[in-house]
Design goal:
Shape: globular
Oligomer: single chain
Largest sheet: none
Structural class: mainly alpha
Number of strands: 0
CATH topology of the largest domain: Leucine-rich Repeat Variant
Helix content: 55-70%
């Protein structure tokens, strides 16, 4: 990764992320190729080592290393067990921004919660009312890929709990979750939107796909 660093690109990438993180300056296709080559040579971590490896990557200053950790977890997500939950929560709440949280929510959290419903229910219950916006965003987004397996009452109740939170990332998540589910059940989403006092942002995002696919 260090050998592929591009200082000028790093400055641009840092600015895009509001200068919250340092970067090597490696764009995603090249970074993924570097990671792919590394894993081809050395192999992915054993599932028992996943927590240690991703935590170590998360501690490194360059943001691309957090992206590497996320990509490794996506490779391993079907093998992750409930005992990974403390690490998952730590990842969501450490160096938090949409670029890592969204992948952790829709891929890693979504898969673990689907594979272990009791674990998922406990986590959602614990995270749904906390002050941390990234844990609440995760509860809103973890069902993004569930399609017809979406727990619709849960989704709608989570949205209702966050209706009046003026945090951009919460309102954006509400709209995104509804937009994704509208691809599965247009009627349910249209009825919910019509009956619910959504923010303008959430309302616009919720109906975007339906308006573009009439």
């Amino acid at each position: 990764m260090a050998a592929a660093a591009d200082p000028q690109q790093a400055l641009q990438m840092a600015r895009y992320m509001r200068d919250q993180f340092a970067f090597y300056g490696i764009k995603s296709p090249q970074r993924r190729e570097i990671l792919r080559s590394f894993l081809k040579e050395y192999g992915a971590p054993a599932i028992g080592d996943a927590s240690e490896v991703v935590r170590a990557l998360w501690e490194l200053p360059e943001r691309e290393q957090q992206y590497n950790a996320l990509d490794i977890l996506i490779r391993l997500q079907k093998k992750l067990q409930p005992d990974f939950l403390p690490t998952l929560k730590w990842l969501i709440t450490t160096k938090s921004w949409w670029d890592t949280v969204d992948g952790l929510a829709s891929n890693v959290s979504g898969t673990i919660f689907a594979n272990f419903p009791e674990t998922g229910a406990t986590a959602v219950q614990q995270w749904r009312s906390v002050d941390n916006i990234w844990l609440r965003r995760t509860t809103l987004l973890h069902q993004l890929k569930y399609k017809d397996k979406t727990n619709v009452p849960l989704l709608f109740s989570l949205i209702e709990e966050n209706l009046y939170d003026d945090e951009f990332f919460i309102q954006k998540a509400i709209g995104w979750a509804l937009r994704e589910y509208s691809k599965t059940d247009e009627t349910a989403v249209r009825e919910f939107v019509a009956q619910t006092n959504l923010s303008p942002l959430a309302h616009r995002e919720a109906l975007k796909w339906l308006k573009n696919n009439q």
